[in-house]
Amino acid sequence: MWLNHPFVSETTTEAITSLAPTELLKDEIDQVAKFYDLIITFFTNYSFQLVGAFIIFIIGYWIAGKVGRWVLRLCEKHQLDITLSRFIANTCKMLIVIMITIIALGKLGISVTPFIAAIGAVSLGAGLALQGLLANYAAGFNIIITRPFVVGDTICVQGVKGVVEEVLLAYTVLRDEDDVKIMIPNKHIVGEVLHNSNNDSLLALSVGISYKENPLEVIKLLEQTLANLDFVSEVRKPQLGIDEFADSAINIAIRLWTPTANFYAAKYRAYQEIYLALEKAGVNIPFPQRDVHIITQQEVK
C-alpha cells in the first residue's frame, strides 16, 4: 500500500519491485548452501563409520554364506534328510546376517531398539491377518523337525496319496504315478491320520477259482508266478490265502508290495501273469451263476 503513496516516486517503486526476485533467489541459494554444509558435515563426521559399517556387512554376509554351505555339507555328511539339511543351513545363514546387520547399524550409532519394537508391532498385525499361512509354516517346521516322513516316502493323508517329492515350510509336494504334482498345505498334514508306507504301496488283488479246483495247489502256483515278477518287493513278501467261499467261486486274496511310482502298471501286469498261469495250468475261473428251481402247482399240492 505504501508504494501507492503520493510521496513515493515512480523510480523508487520500480527499484523496490526489482529487488523482490533477487531476495527470493538469495534465500534459495542460502538454503542450498545450508543443505550442502549439512551433507559435508555429515560425511566429515560419519564417513569412517559408513565405510566401516559397509565393510562389516559385506564381510559378514560373505562369512554367512560360507557358514551356510559348511553346515549343509556337514548335514549331508551325517546323512540327514535333504530338506532338514537345507532348512538348518538357511537358518544359520539368516541368523548370522541379522547379527551382522545389528553390528553394522550400531557402528553408525543407530539404535535398533525402535526397529525391534516396530517389527514386533508389524508382526502382531501380520500374524492376525495371516493366521492360515503362519499355521502352514508352523506345521512345516514341525514336519521338518519330527520327520514323520522324508523325501521318497509314500504317504496317504486327507484321501490323497503320492510319493513325497519335496517338503517346504508352507506345503508338501507329492507326485503320483500320472506325474501329477500335488501340493498339500502342511496344516492339513500335522494332526491328521497319516499313512506312511516308505517307498512301496500295498497292492490287493483277488481271483476266483472253481469249487472243482484245489485252492491250496492254486495258491502254490500263484506264489511261484509272483516270485518271478521284478516289481514285487523283496523285503515284504507277498501274502496269499483263501479269502472267501463265495456263491460261485473260491476267492483267493493276494497282497503284495510294489513301488508306488508304478502302482497301476504293476497291478495290470500282475493280473495278466495270474491269468496266463491259471490258463496254462487249466484252472477254471468260473463266472457267476445261479440254479433256479421252478416249483409247479402240482408239486405244491
Strands, helices and their partners?
Blueprint: H1 10-77, H2 82-107, H3 113-129, H4 131-146, E1 154-157, E2 160-167, E3 171-175, E4 181-185, E5 195-196, E6 200-209, H5 215-227, E7 239-245, E8 250-259, H6 263-281, H7 297-300
Antiparallel strand pairs: 1-2, 1-5, 2-3, 3-4, 6-8, 7-8
Poorly predicted tracts of residues: none
Q: What is the terminal-to-terminal distance?
A: 139 Å
Gyration radius, in Å = 40 Å
Whole-number mean pLDDT: 79
CATH topology of the largest domain: Helix Hairpins
Oligomerization category of the chains in this entry: single chain
* Helix and strand pattern: HHHHEEEEEEHEEHH
Number of helices: 7
Give the biggest sheet: 5 strands, antiparallel
Report the top-level CATH class of the largest domain. Mainly Alpha
CATH architecture of the largest domain: Orthogonal Bundle
What is the number of E strands? 8
Shape: elongated
Structural class: alpha+beta
Integer tally of domains: 3
**Share of helical residues:** 40-55%
What percentage of the residues does DSSP assign to strands (E)? 15-25%
Give the strand order of the largest sheet, numbering strands 1, 2, ... along the chain: 4-3-2-1-5
Describe this structure in words.
This protein has 301 residues and is α+β, with helices and mostly antiparallel strands. It folds into three domains: 26-129, Helix Hairpins; 149-196, SH3 type barrels (Roll), CATH 2.30.30.60; 200-281, Alpha-Beta Plaits. It is 54% helix and 17% strand. The protein contains seven helices and eight strands. It has a five-stranded antiparallel β-sheet. The chain has a three-stranded antiparallel β-sheet with strand order 6-8-7, with helices on one face. A hairpin with a 2-residue loop joins strand 1 (154-157) and strand 2. Helix 1 (10-77) runs antiparallel to helix 2 and helix 5 (215-227) crosses helix 6 (263-281). The longest helix has 68 residues, at 10-77. The protein is elongated, with a radius of gyration of 40 Å. The model has no long low-confidence stretch (mean pLDDT 79).
